[in-house]
Design brief:
Layout: H1 2-23, H2 28-62
Helix pairs in contact: 1-2
């Protein structure tokens, strides 16, 4: 079970890093336009990670 939790957290972090990496374009105008989008998407990832950790914790306790 611990291994599965570690995999979930690792995948979520990799998705976050991948999103930020893809959004880090060198075009100045592109960066200005996408800054808000990247901020919102990062916030979504943070919320999903927290909810996922809570859900796994609840699953472990209820099991």
């Amino acid at each position: 079970m611990t291994f599965a939790i570690m995999i979930i957290i690792l995948l979520a972090l990799l998705a976050l890093v991948g999103t930020i990496f893809v959004a880090n374009d060198r075009d100045v105008n592109y960066n200005k336009k996408t800054k808000g989008n990247v901020t919102r998407l990062t916030s979504i990832y943070a919320v999903v990670i927290v909810i996922s950790v809570i859900a796994v914790g609840v699953y472990i306790v209820m099991r």
